[in-house]
Each structure stands twice: as C-alpha cells, then as structure tokens.
Amino acid sequence: MSAGALATAFGYELERARSAEHLAAITNVKVRAAEKGLVPYHSARESYARVRELLDGSIELRHLDFSANRIEDAKSATPWTLTHNTPALDAKLVAAAIEVRRTGYAIVDGLVGEPMASAIRHALANFVDEDEDARTFSKGELDQSERRILGDATVDKIRDDTIAWLKGDERDMVGAFAQFLRVTVLRPLFSAFATTSHGLSSAPPLAPVDSYVSNAMLSVYAPGARGFVSHVDNCGPDIDPRALSVVYYPISSTPEEGGAMVLFPGHETKEVRLTPTRDRLVLFASARVPHAVEPRARDASRRIAASFWFVGQPLAVMAAAET
C-alpha cells in the first residue's frame, strides 16, 4: 500500500471513530506509522491537530495515552520538530522568496538553528557512511534536457559527484529531512510567491504541497572531485516544470577545500561564490541562474549537499526575478 493510500485509510478510520479513546488510538497508530516512514509527517501532524481540538476539554482526554504530544516538544531535535513550520523559519523563507524575485537567488544562513542543524548533519553523514556496498548512491548524471544538449559522452567531464534520492520514507531523521525540504520549506515559499506574483501568471509560480511526488537529492563530492561545470537546472522551461531550486548544506567547508557553488545571476560575468556553510539554504530560479560547483581539493573532506526542485511556472519566477 502506498503512503497516500495508507494516509487515506487513516483518515477514513478517524472519520468513523466512535469515542475519544478510539480517536486517540487511531492517531497514535498514525504517529507510529509516520515514524516508520509509512505516511508523511505533515499528514500525521494534521490529524493530531484535528483530534486534539476535538478532545480539548474532554474528561476522557485525562485518561488517554496520547503519544503524539511529542509533536509539541520544540526543545528537542526530532523528526516531529524538524517537519514543523515555526514563525521564525517561515519568516526566513518569506524573505528569501522576496529576494529571489528581486535578484534571482537568495541565501538563508542558520535555517533551522541548533540543535536541529547538528541532528541533520549527523543523520546525513551517517547515511553516507552506511552506504558501504554503494547500492544507494550512484554516479550523478545529466537530466534529459542537459543530455540532449551536451551528449552522454561528456558527462564525466562535466559532473563528478555521487547521488542518492531520498523519498522521505528513510528511517528517522533522514526521511524527515526529505519531507522537510518537500513540504515544510515549501509552505511559506508557496504563499510568498503566490502573494507577490502581481498577476504575472494565471497560476501560482509554485505548485502547492499536495502536487509533489518528487524526491530530494543527496549529493556527495569526494576529495579530488572535479566539480560540476556551469549549467542551468531547467534547460527547457516550456516542457520542464522545475521553477525553484534549493540546496541545503549540512556541513561546512573552508575555502581552501574547494567545492564552492558559484552562481551567475543575470549575467555570466557576475559571480556569487558560496563556500559550503553548515545550516545554509541557497535558493535560485531554476531556469534563470547558471551555477557551477568548483573542484574539491584532494586533501579536503567530502562535500555533502541536499537539493530539491519546486515545480510550477518557471517563467513566472523568471519574470518576477527580472523586475
């Protein structure tokens, strides 16, 4: 059964619950299913919020073992707190959306803060370490539009990383982090782009949360990797729906280690060089901003980054960014 079908099944059961005890029991099972990667965290959270509202003030509530209260614990770095939208996080992302419209790109430092940034770094680093048989990671490839333009034979000269696709059902913090990029980050961005589009498009620049079945990409550049030459994520905005690219860095590097991402917003002669910095999110218009990854020094540590692409109206993002 798919995650969507299972979430629907939980919704069906919640609608037919006959008592506070049944409501709490079903919600607790859904919480545990989310923790196992079987349903999205945001779906379990929404169910919990509705059930809590229904049970508020109920005498029966005093006798319930309502395990979902972990959702409200903002002091600990857990999958529940990572996937929760907070006013501070949303404000940073709304400001970033405004900056993307103005310049084509934005940088958010201290995206989630401590201790969450440490938890993400630890989870992703362990995920890479545990891939000893290389079944999860594979060599990075060009997408279809890039292959059509450049040809498969040039891939090795252009891109030198290994990648893994994160679906959101990976265990513990890794799966939650993929859901964080797909859902938690998108929510304020969707609203911000929609409210500042000024009629540039009949549809919102970004598709809403429920439109996404895509995965996050975890990329690793080993010591001595040749990087990734300048390219545009969306080479065909008429057929490719990718509108906004985001890249998150869980681990910092020094300038001497190499591996900086270089953005060329608006014109190839303008460069914005970004050394990987822990807990930094970089956002840019997928069809407008060429970018590259510089070679990694041979004595450097590995470089880890996570990317996600929000789909929608690429030309609307471009038009807004150029004003």
From TrEMBL:
Pfam families, sorted: 2OG-FeII_Oxy_3 (PF13640)
Keyword terms, alphabetized: Dioxygenase, Iron, Metal-binding, Oxidoreductase, Vitamin C
Cofactor(s) the protein needs: L-ascorbate
Gene3D superfamilies reported in the protein's UniProt record: q2cbj1_9rhob like domain
GO biological process annotation, one example: cellular response to hypoxia
Entry keyword annotation includes rRNA-binding: no
GO molecular function: ferrous iron binding; L-ascorbic acid binding; peptidyl-proline dioxygenase activity
Every Fe2OG dioxygenase domain range: 208-312
SMART domains found in the cross-reference section: P4Hc (SM00702)
Name of protein: Fe2OG dioxygenase domain-containing protein
Species whose genome carries this gene: Ostreococcus lucimarinus (strain CCE9901)
